[in-house]
Structure formats: C-alpha cells, structure tokens
Amino acid sequence: MTLSADAATEVVPRSVDATGVLATLAAPPPGVVEFNSGYLHASLQPERAMAAALARAGRRPGAWDRPPIEGLPELREWFARGMGGAITAAEVLITSGGQSALTTTLRALAPPGAPVLLESPTYPGLLAIARAAGLRPVPVPVDTDGVRPELLEAAFRATGARVFVCQPLFQNPTGAVLSAERRPEVLRIAREAGAFVVEDDFVRRLVHEDAGPLPTPLTADDRDGVVVHVCSLTKATSPSFRVSALAARGPVLERLRAIQVVDHFFVPRPLQEAALELVGSPAWPRHLRTVAAELRDRRDALAAALRLRLPELALPHVPVGGYHLWLRLPDGTDELGLAAAALRAGVAVAPGRPYFAAEPPAAHLRLSFAALAGAGEIAEGVRRLRAACDEVLG
Amino acid sequence: MTLSADAATEVVPRSVDATGVLATLAAPPPGVVEFNSGYLHASLQPERAMAAALARAGRRPGAWDRPPIEGLPELREWFARGMGGAITAAEVLITSGGQSALTTTLRALAPPGAPVLLESPTYPGLLAIARAAGLRPVPVPVDTDGVRPELLEAAFRATGARVFVCQPLFQNPTGAVLSAERRPEVLRIAREAGAFVVEDDFVRRLVHEDAGPLPTPLTADDRDGVVVHVCSLTKATSPSFRVSALAARGPVLERLRAIQVVDHFFVPRPLQEAALELVGSPAWPRHLRTVAAELRDRRDALAAALRLRLPELALPHVPVGGYHLWLRLPDGTDELGLAAAALRAGVAVAPGRPYFAAEPPAAHLRLSFAALAGAGEIAEGVRRLRAACDEVLG
C-alpha cells in the first residue's frame, strides 16, 4: 500500500491546478501546430549567443561560487537601467524567472487567506500562483486601455485587499496597454488603499517593429514605493534562461529579500554570469531587432488569416507587442469542445476559461504566434482551426 | 515618502528571520576564520571539473531548451540509483537545491497554521522555511542515536501533525545518525499517525574516509510511501551548483510536482546538463574520495585542537560524516556574547540558540570545518576562540 494521504489531499488547495497550467506545460503531440506556447520558436531564440555566453560564463574564475545574495551587482545595475531610471541597482533583486519572482512577491505581500486583486482576464499561471499561496483571487475587469480604475477602486473598498497584480504593457491575454490617463489613477488608488501594485512587465523585450515608443514601466512614475516591479529575460530568450528581477523601494524590499532567500537562497551564479555575457554581447541588440520584426510578421500573418478564414471569431484588438491574440467566440460556443476538436485537427489552442478567476463573460480563445516557424505554419494552423470550427460551430 | 507598509509588516511572519539565516549568509570580514560556513573551501570544490561540465553542457544542442518539467530522465535515474533502490526515476523530481526542495515539500504537505515536527536541535534554515510557510515548528529532541521515538510518538499524538522532518544521517547540528533500532520505529510511528517523514539526506556525499559502510536512506526501508526524500549536489560541490532531487511514492508525488511547477516551473536545463556531465566524469569519484579524506583530516585537527585548548567545551560526539562539530558550553555561558567576542578576535562561530525552535536546554556552539583551508587555519581559529573564551568565560 502507499499512504493514500488524506493529509496531502486535504492540504494542497485542490484548485492549485484548476487552471490547467500543468496540462499546457506538457509537450504537444508531434506535428501539432502550437498556438498555445508562450516561448519563442527555436529559430527565434538566440541559440548561438546563449551557448557562447554560457561557455564564457564557465571560464570566468569562481563561476560556481556563491554570488551576493541579491545578485551580481552588474546584473542588478543592468536590470535597473531597463526600469526607466526610478530604480537603483540597490533596489533590485535577481530572481529565477518571472513565475518564481511572482511567487516570492505574493508570499511576501499577502498572508494566506487574503484577497488579491488580479486583472480579468489574466494568465492562468498567475491564478495558479495566487491559489498555491492560499490567496483569494478577486477579478477586476480590463478593457483595451487596461484595468478600469473605477472598478479597481471599488474592489479595494469591497475587499480590503492590499495587493493588485497587473501587466500594464501588452497584458496577457488581451494585449491591452494601460493608458496614459489611467496610470496615475491606478497608482493613486493603490496608495490610498495602502496597497501595493505588482507590475508584471513580462514582454517589454518582445515589442513589435511597428510599435513606436513604449510607455515607461509604471515603477518609473511611482513616487511612493507603491510598485513592486517584476521583469524577466526568459520570454525574450529561451525557456531555461530563467533570470529575472524584482524591484521595490522602501521597507518592502527587505521582506521580499527575506522570502527570496528562504525559498531560493540565490540564482546560481553561472546563469547570472551567462545573462551578463548575453546582454553585453553585440548579438543581443541584433537579436531583439530580429525578434521585433519576426513577431510583427507573424502577428500580421495570423491576424490576416483569421480575418479571412475565421470571420466569425471577433478580434477586437491587435497589439504591437507580446506574442498572442485574444479572440472572442460566438455566444454559446463550447470553447473546451472547440479546443478539443482543434487538437484532433492538429492545432493546439488555449481556451479562454482558465484566464478567468470567476465565470467568464463570454467564450474566448488565445492564439500565440511566437512558437511558430513562420507564415506557412500559421496558415496551416488557421486552416486546421477552420476545420475544427466547422465541426463545432456548425 | 515610501509606503511604510503596514500591509507588509503585518503579513510576513516577523519570525521569518528570527533564526538569523540572513546574517549567516553575509560574507564575513576578510581575515576572519570561518567556522560558520556550510560550504566546502574553494580548494575542496571540484572547480575544474565543474567548469568543464558547464562548458560541455553549453555545447550540447538545445542546452537552453525547456527540459521535461520533472527533470532530465538520465539525471532522475542517477538520483534514483543513489537512493538505495526503492525509488524509481519516475518517482524523482529535479529541484533547485535542498532549501528550495524543502520549501516545496512543506508547502505541499502542510497548510499554513499547521504544526510540523522538527528535530531539536535542527538547522536554522529549516526553521526559517517552516516559519515562512506559516507552519508551527514543534521540536522533538534528538540524542546521539537520532530522534527519540517515544517523544516523536507523543508529539504526533499531542499536535495531530502530519509531517516530521528529519536528517537521519549526520544530523545538523548534532551529527547524530538514526540508529538501526529506531529506523523502523520512526516509520511505524509516522504511518500510524497518517503522516509523512521528510528525509533531508543532506550530507550523504560528505562522508569521511573512516566512516565504514553507511546506512541506506530511510526511503529504502519505506514500504508505505511515508517518506519524502530530499537530497542535493550542492554541499558536495559548490554554492551555485543548486541541483537537487525530491522523491516520493504514491499520490503525494503529484502534489509535490504541482507545487514545484507553480513555484519554479523547472530547473534550468544548463544546470541539469552540467550536473550530468559532472557526475558522469572520472573526476567525480576522485573528488568524493579527496573530500572524504580532507574532511576527516579537518575534523580530527579541529577535535584535537578543541580538546587540547578548550577542554571546558564539551564535545560529546565526533561524527564520521558532515562538516561540523556541536559543542556544549559551560552552564550559564552567554553564547551570543561569546560569538561576538569570537568575531572581534577574528573567528566566526555559530551560536546554538538559532538551532532551537523553543528555549534551548543548554548553551552551544556549532563549528564547521568544511570551509577552512587546512590544519593551519583550524589551529589559528581555535587559538582565537580560546582568546574569546578567556574574555567571556572568565
């Protein structure tokens, strides 16, 4: 017999994977068009530059030594520069990937059982993190200008929450950018609620070629130490390049540091050294330019194919950054049925349900275009999705 | 102004670093003899072999790709073989260091607020992990044969705890090895309590040359899926070599996996590839033999110097594995005052207080010998400690 583990079954929140994060991490069957991956296609990853960076990191003396707990000073400095100038290197902690940084942050900011305000929709990984931390996700609707301030204010009032997590730039899944008008509102509302805004700045380095100037991170406007900023190199590099940063001002920084140290100690030095080698190499800006052009092309190819072949799927917003489109399905669509039919037809898509903490207002699909080889694969994926829609939508 | 963060000050357990873990992670002033480090001295780390392993890992195709969530199959297989045969590769998860593996384990096994049984004394990092997880540490005394079964049984009965964490081999700090008589008792008691035994097998690869055959891991005797086993490569290599394994049987494995994925996703592939390269190289068994001989020499040098120069410090047990000695101070010694005087005299030692979840029965010091260059530095450290004792003990 094995311990049937009443202990275990009762102690881990049953909902920890209600969002299906584990399922999406499983490799799809070969030949399937992957519209549901959040990572760059192998051809878009800076593979040679990363291999060179690791080799150079390995030759540095003391490559396996203990780095300073907070991270290598030069790497903290590099991340701080990318945050718009309001943050100094001393306010940055190096962490091991965005997922892990968000886990640390929520554990540091909210006790088990507390409410946490999240954008709605938001990405399933964040819902899983919140639930695994024993928190109660409270959804606050976003529109194409980001979170709606009046609803945010009401949610703080109704719940007494002390934390709001948001993605102000190319939000996942909607692609929304928090508007210039709303930015100060969000900061004011959080400050008045005595709460923190956790800014998950996850795709600033996956901007498209035609984007024009980007808004600075919200943390650059923050005069009061309200914002805890999270960003990562993973999305712009490769799944195993798990190097990220957490930044905060004031007393909360020490609490983030304490939780980070207890949970992880520090990020292994070879990864930090490799990150410094990579972002300091001439290949890095070239890589970012290539990705910006390739993502724009893939985005346009996918949007055009969808409009041509799947006009019944509404595409209200085409973002100029990030790696996905968010489609609204006709009322009454069985989105799980559609996703299953799509997989049978050879295309993996993400149904909208796991992006909502509560009952969704409508059926959706999220289609990612980062993991695809190019226009040919995109066309084939849309053709297969058309077949699935014919079967399910009738 | 920065947010003075009532939110933060109330939500992180104030006691999270009551054990002083953060302080011990700070680098000591230069010239100080480090009797308080848990890592091997640079000269004992397999630096060239690790650099070569990293370089080879970087040349493997797809070195930065996503590994399987549970870890590379060959590495899971390698860890499984080291666990005494009862565990298969399918029951092993690769994790990023022992600290992180224990955090995942406690979060998976016990809800916030629950009691968790810990050996007393135990290492401060474990107390910090338990407190950061919101758990209530319940100390169960150990003697030189490991945890005392009758007290373990009583503690389960009194608290209803569902988890007991122990280090059956060369326990930190006492060096105790759980005796052959007590091993089945501990398993029976846990099984009858419907509880898990978390086996932190942290120094199996830091055994001394004169140790003779070791007892197998407790997990090898476990017929009921009671044991969750944790082991790591870090202690036998270098601080940044954060590659470890978690093993469990039955339904709890899936819960460990779910928490591990939400908190960390996976261990970066280059570290896993480097681990495989390292343990598969001819340098690896040579390294372990060298460390076994060097640790025995350092242990003997330290024990001899202490007996000669500090006879008033009781040394009840000299272990044949691990990297530290546990000394009892004369009754009434101000151990914090002694540690402070020692640091002024140029030697860093760990006072005993942080090793106890509750009031200590006596004053202690822990002296580690792994981080020292050799016999000369050990002699100098003991000379300085003698000076501090003269000042404090009078």
Automatic annotation (TrEMBL), chains A, B:
The protein's required cofactors: pyridoxal 5'-phosphate
InterPro entries: Aminotransferase_I/II_large (IPR004839), Class-I_PLP-dep_aminotransf (IPR050859), PyrdxlP-dep_Trfase (IPR015424), PyrdxlP-dep_Trfase_major (IPR015421), PyrdxlP-dep_Trfase_small (IPR015422)
SUPFAM superfamilies: PLP-dependent transferases
Domain Aminotransferase class I/classII large: 41-380
GO biological process: alpha-amino acid metabolic process
Entry's Gene Ontology molecular function annotations: DNA binding; pyridoxal phosphate binding; transaminase activity
One Pfam family named in its UniProt record: Aminotran_1_2
Keywords of this entry: Aminotransferase, DNA-binding, Pyridoxal phosphate, Transcription, Transcription regulation, Transferase
Family recorded in the similarity comment: In the C-terminal section; belongs to the class-I pyridoxal-phosphate-dependent aminotransferase family.
Name of the featured protein: Putative HTH-type transcriptional regulator YdfD
